[in-house]
Amino acid sequence: MDDWQTGVLAACVDVDGATLGEAMFADKGPAVWVGRREVAHFDAERTLDVRLTRQVIRRRRDELRGDPRVALRRNASDWVELTLATDGDVAWAQALVREAVQANRATAPPGPAPTGDALDRRRRAH
Predict the structure, then answer these.
(1) Helix, strand, coil % (nearest 5) of the chain?
(2) 125 in helix, strand or coil?
(3) Against a cut of 0.85, is the pTM above it?
(4) What's the DSSP call for residue 16?
(5) To pair with 38 at 20 to 30 A between CA atoms, which of 9, 77, 89, 102?
(6) d(CA 64, CA 34)
(7) In the chain, what are the domain boundaries?
(8) CA-CA distance, 84 to 101, in Å (whole number)?
(9) pLDDT digits (tens, 9 = 90+) for 9-62
């Protein structure tokens, strides 16, 4: 795991229900999990994907659409992509990850984040 990325995401697991594990949707690296659902991972050094949920994205659509740090997906999606260029961007993104943890907590499958063979199986399925 990349130390900088791990530090950014580790600061987000202070929210009840969040844990730090290995990313399923990215090649390698850290991810924030709620139960067995991944809610944040890095796609590149300073590009963070966050599973904010469709409901939160709908509620904040105008704000998110107007922010140059945010890339919304074309189709309805739970995910947004964030570009982190400054320390201020990092703090802002960490707040969004914490919001994503809270938004996913009620519907995430319970249990620990997958590791080892279980994580490899999930990667192959996606």
Answers:
(1) 40, 25, 35
(2) helix
(3) yes
(4) T
(5) 89
(6) 23
(7) 3-108
(8) 19
(9) 999 998 888 999 999 877 778 999 999 999 999 999 999 999 999 999 999 999
